[in-house]
Amino acid sequence: MADKVVLAYSGGLDTSVICRWLQETYNAEVVTFTADLGQGEEVEPARAKAQAMGVKEIYIEDLREEFVRDFVFPMFRANTLYEGEYLLGTSIARPLIAKRLVEIARETGSDAISHGATGKGNDQVRFELGAYALEPDIKVIAPWREWDLTSRESLMKFCEEHQIPVDAKRGEKSPYSMDANLLHISYEGDNLEDPWQEAEESMWRWTVSPEAAPDQPQYVEIGFEHGDPVSVDGERLGPAALLTKLNELGGAHGIGRSDLVENRFVGMKSRGCYETPGGTILLKAHRAIESITLDREVAHLKDELMPRYAELIYNGYWWAPERKVLQALIDESQKPVNGTVRLKLYKGSVSVSGRMSPDDSLYDAHVVTFEDDRGAYDQADAAGFIRLNALRLRLGAKRGRKLS
């Protein structure tokens, strides 16, 4: 049993039911925590809903700056993609929520935390691995793994029986399960459960279709310092404001849509659609500035480690020691990653049109030129280089002749 529980609370149907269920099933005092991660919806109404449920301690926090600065940007320093496509918009938000759940539990003297993630998904793993890594003795209550409420209808019936006020939303409710924050918005369920069915155009919220995007390209310049973006078109912006700006630019040009089938940590394959306009622009820009500032072997090492790093985040191991060790290596590599990248946004695509780093570039036009290199590179040196690298191939070929 638990005497006091901190609940990750949105004020929606699921978490409202969970709040009352915790009060009655565990006879627990519930503390609610609502985070604004840039999901685009007002979070303050959750206060009145929690008060109506008899909650006395209510936490509503704007975490957008911390989310982008301490979680999104460190992840982008590694050019992170899960299974080659997914920019991890949902995954990277979970460690921050787990962190605040644990911190609030300490502040309020709570002995347990609770969340609304189902027993089929990855989020239950991410929340709980994060919580245990930060507070090993914390108790976790996951109602979807305990109760017998298995459908929206059963949740609505529970609300009626327990006098839980539920908003009567105007208009047609989206048939999709969606998760949004400043980095992305995701869609699952309904017709998307058939991987052969194309996503409906009406589903997308943040981006225009590439066909409807402007007929003229737009150029944008992003400035970097130590691997992190700090400016857009010469204007310095904080992390949250910068990502918001890039989301607006990318969305207007139909950039950042993806439709993929991913391998969940719990074992099943899941089809989801994602809109990550600003993140898609950032990934292209960051790789471009690294291309002129990173040593070749450092860049290749980062590319080798990235899939492992992405898997750690996807599977919920942000707070694990191996992720921290990898992060230290990645962050060390970013010291010379400074400069500006110019990109062209056009009908769903983002392409690099220029990159410069006056102080940290390793690109030397005198060495690479096809014109007179003024002695910067002796082409005759290549003969010995090739002979040495061919030595093992020649020895292997001779042996092969003897064996045949």
Descriptive report:
The protein has 404 residues and is an alpha/beta fold. The protein folds into 3 domains: 4-64 and 87-161, Rossmann fold, CATH 3.40.50; 177-294 and 336-356, Argininosuccinate synthetase, chain A, domain 2 (Alpha-Beta Complex); 374-399, no CATH class. The protein is 40% helix and 19% strand. It has helices at residues 13-25, 45-52, 64-76, 94-108, 123-134, 152-161, 239-252, 277-293, 296-315, 321-333, 365-368, 381-403, and strands at residues 4-8, 29-36, 58-62, 112-114, 139-141, 177-180, 185-188, 218-225, 228-232, 235-236, 257-263, 269-275, 339-346, 349-356. The strands form 3 sheets. It has a 5-stranded parallel beta sheet, sandwiched between helices. A 5-stranded antiparallel beta sheet has the order 10-9-8-13-14, covered by helices on one side. A 4-stranded antiparallel beta sheet has the order 6-7-12-11, with no helix packed on it. Helix 1 crosses helix 6 and helix 3 packs across helix 7 (239-252). The chain is elongated, with a radius of gyration of 25 Å. The mean pLDDT is 94.
User: What is the total domain count?
Assistant: 3
Tell me the β content. 15-25%
Radius of gyration from CA coordinates: 25 Å
Rough outline: elongated
Per CATH, the superfamily of the largest domain is Argininosuccinate synthetase, chain A, domain 2
Content-based structural category: alpha/beta
Sequence of secondary-structure elements: EHEHEHHEHEHEEEEEHEEHHHEEHH
CATH class type of the largest domain: Alpha Beta
Name the poorly predicted regions: none
Terminal Cα span:
74 Å
